[in-house]
Amino acid sequence: MPLSLSNLDKNYLMSGTTTDSFAVLLRRVAPELLPPTTVDTSVPELLRHGRTILAIRYSGGVVVAADLGSALAKRLGQTDIDRILGTDDRCVIGVAGAAGLAGEMIRLFQAEVDHLEKIQGQRISMDGRAVRLSSLVRSNGTMMAQGLAVTPLLAGWDDLAHRGRIFSYDGTGGRTEEHSHACVGSGALFASGVLNEGFRAGMDRDESVTLAIRALGTAISDDTTSSVSGPDLSRGLYPAVTYADSHGVTRFPTEEVAVLAKQVVDQIAAESDREEARS
């Protein structure tokens, strides 16, 4: 039920005490609407989420991709849990972790950006967004101690720098700008090897998406907590892919992802055949 102005702290409504943080506002006037700080860790689905999110810079922007599903989704036949969303027309956030907690962090970050831009009356820079996300990750410290940290990637087009940018985070909210690619989640170790080997400066968008699909496929194959088995051509299951460039944030059409996924599957099969022939 929406809060009326009469229910808000009168001191908050005074200009001298107004904060530009939506999270701080909620903490003061409606803390029950904030994401939980503790959960019941005995629920196995919370600890076994099997998600990998990655971002790759290319010549005209940045690609963000995620494998589909969750541990619980596999049992229920659900494979479209979305963990990458555009917060506006320039920025994308992807979050690895338990589905409910990841979704709440994405929604809170979207509200934080919207609130700040309305207070300041101007668009928030990529650096400003990166700082705001740091504070949200830091507030998840109790969850991190329980083994339930949700780990985000922030990517988008920087109008001032005229290039795509990627920020990764540790569990304490510390942020690092990544100049080529970044990967988080349970399959990050495996995907990172593919990204390190396949990335090159000057890649175009399709080359970056192809590399992302291959990296996610490797992560899913090698990650024992993963809930899906990589691109499934027969069932039409493919990674979720979004890109940000000077024209805005766009979800890569499933049909185009399918074409690139088939190329990756065929290439991997051909490489396997060559390996068998040599042995």
From TrEMBL:
<dbReference type="GO" id="GO:0004298">
    <property type="term" value="F:threonine-type endopeptidase activity"/>
</dbReference>
<dbReference type="InterPro" id="IPR023333">
    <property type="entry name" value="Proteasome_suB-type"/>
</dbReference>
<protein>
    <recommendedName>
        <fullName>Proteasome subunit beta</fullName>
        <ecNumber>3.4.25.1</ecNumber>
    </recommendedName>
</protein>
<keyword id="KW-0647">Proteasome</keyword>
<dbReference type="InterPro" id="IPR022483">
    <property type="entry name" value="PSB_actinobac"/>
</dbReference>
<keyword id="KW-0865">Zymogen</keyword>
<keyword id="KW-0378">Hydrolase</keyword>
<dbReference type="Pfam" id="PF00227">
    <property type="entry name" value="Proteasome"/>
</dbReference>
<dbReference type="GO" id="GO:0005839">
    <property type="term" value="C:proteasome core complex"/>
</dbReference>
<keyword id="KW-0068">Autocatalytic cleavage</keyword>
<keyword id="KW-0963">Cytoplasm</keyword>
<dbReference type="InterPro" id="IPR029055">
    <property type="entry name" value="Ntn_hydrolases_N"/>
</dbReference>
<keyword id="KW-0888">Threonine protease</keyword>
<dbReference type="GO" id="GO:0010498">
    <property type="term" value="P:proteasomal protein catabolic process"/>
</dbReference>
<keyword id="KW-0645">Protease</keyword>
<dbReference type="GO" id="GO:0005737">
    <property type="term" value="C:cytoplasm"/>
</dbReference>
<dbReference type="InterPro" id="IPR001353">
    <property type="entry name" value="Proteasome_sua/b"/>
</dbReference>
